[in-house]
Amino acid sequence: MDKTAIEARASERLLSGRAWEDFCDTLKAAGTMIDQFGDQPSDLDRAEWYRFLTRVTRSSFERLIENAEPTRPRLRDMVWRQSINFQTVDQDHLMCQFDEARDYRIVGTRGTIPYFVLAVLTAPAPADAGARDWAQAGVAGLKEFDPSNLKTTGFLGSQQLHIEDDGTFEIVLSQNDPGEGRNWLKLNADTNCILIRYVWSDRANEISPDLRIERIDGAEPEPLTPALMANGLAWSGQAVLGYAELVRNWWQGNQGNFSAKLNRLDFSRAQYLSNGGVPDRHVAFGGWEKRLDEALVLEFTPPECEYWNFQICNIWQENLDTFEDGNGWVNNYRFNAEPDGTVRIVISERDPGVGGNWVNSFGHDKGQWGLRFIRTEVTPTVKLWRVPLADLEARSNAALDPAIAVDTGQFVD
Questions:
Q1: What single string gives the DSSP state of each residue in 106-145?
Q2: In this structure, what are the phi and psi dihedrals at residue 29, rounded to the nearest 5 degrees?
Q3: Of 385, 390, 389, 391, which Cα lies nearest the Cα of 404?
Q4: What pTM was estimated for this model as a whole?
Q5: How far, CA to CA in Å, does 167 sit from each of 76, 172, 197, 244?
């Protein structure tokens, strides 16, 4: 089917209401996926599941409809409180969706944050996405069309950029090299997204980069078409379904199966790069579990690196609500160290008063967690204890018997 025929069919689906109905049916299919978790989710987990779906729907609209106009590209921030797939509290994520790999220019100022990185991504998608129904295919349709399955094909860090004395710079995004001396991020023919991560150390006192993206051909903005709206609905519906399947697959599927190997951290290059990661860092993921009257205690010695952080999430890979209060994560800008340089993290329902860094589990008895180190050659072993909270409160460090500690932080690929 040629492009004209595809657009005609997509327009018909939108104008008849069929594209909207298929979108709604895809959301329904995503909602029922919690049934696959059996009796694992608690009442709290289930409430957060439905909130998770609303958040992913909102984010998908922002990325794939509001900010996916071919003639008006935009770098838009992830919506407030959204934390898809372990989004780090210290990082802002800007995205721009492409309909095809044209030539683009990003211009802006460096700001004063420590670090940012640009990554170009590709997600599997057919050319006739808006011309077809997807709900009936369910999860099987994600093999062909999955906006959540973002693979990194190239990246460029701020430390690699040529920046003018006044802090300004320009980056060309194209399939062809623009020539010597230019900042260039190569696009592939199937590139359909760019992701920019800002890393902060002190939000109150640092200046953010100021970036904008534009088409180099200077195309004038065009009004919305029925075909474009049909395409946006198809992308948005599949994105919600894709992220629902992603968290299921990491928790109990073959892309992690964290529920079957709880209370460990596995460094996996493939795991991290499977969803928009960039290869300048080592990241360990895993699942955690404890009763509400227990504590999990982790200890590790951070290596030399540009940045590190530890975060806990619910089983849907969202930061716990406590991040708004400055809790729920620890990083190299805000942590307490032991005299020997070891970092101790205590996860529990209340602070047991043993020092270190307390992370509030906030009514959760299980979830997922992550430990990342940016620009380092080595990673540490992590010692982990699961102990009664009352015992930790009564006996302090004596409750952390080295003989019962579990070593984790292993590389699995």
A1: EEEE--SSSEEEEEEEE----TTGGGS--GGGGGGGGGT-
A2: -65, -40
A3: 385
A4: 0.95
A5: 22, 17, 18, 41
Give the helix/strand (H/E) hosting 410.
strand 410-411
* Cβ proximity of 90 and 200 under 8 Å: yes
* Cα-based distances in Å from 394 to 347, 356, 358, 391: 16, 16, 16, 5
For the record, the structure tokens of 406 come out as: 């579990």
> In 3D, which of 190, 221, 239, 276 has the Cα closest to residue 56?
239
Q: 198: part of which helix (H) or strand (E)? A: strand 193-199
List the structure tokens of 145. Answer: 């069309």
Q: How far apart are CA 126 and CA 50, in angstroms?
A: 29
C-alpha span between 323 and 177 (Å, rounded): 42
- Phi/psi for 135 (5° steps) reads -60, -40
Distance CA 267, CA 398 (A): 30
Amino acid letter, residue 167: G
Q: In a structure prediction context, what are the per-residue pLDDT tens digits for the chain, which is 413 residues long?
A: 799 999 999 999 999 999 999 999 999 999 999 999 999 999 999 999 999 999 999 999 999 999 999 999 999 887 777 788 898 888 899 999 999 899 999 999 999 999 899 999 999 999 999 999 999 999 999 999 999 999 999 999 999 999 999 999 999 999 999 999 999 999 999 999 999 999 999 999 999 999 999 999 999 999 999 999 999 999 999 999 999 999 999 999 988 899 999 999 999 888 877 767 777 889 999 999 999 999 999 999 999 998 999 999 999 999 999 998 999 999 999 999 999 999 999 999 999 999 999 999 999 999 999 999 988 989 999 999 999 999 999 999 999 999 999 999 999 88
Alpha helices in 253-335 (DSSP H): 269-273
* The residue to which tokens 């062909």 are assigned: 144
The rounded distance, in Å, linking the Cα atoms of 80 and 404 is 41
Strand partners, 377: none
Helix or strand or coil: residue 364? Answer: coil
Report the DSSP pairing between strands 193-199 and 115-122: antiparallel
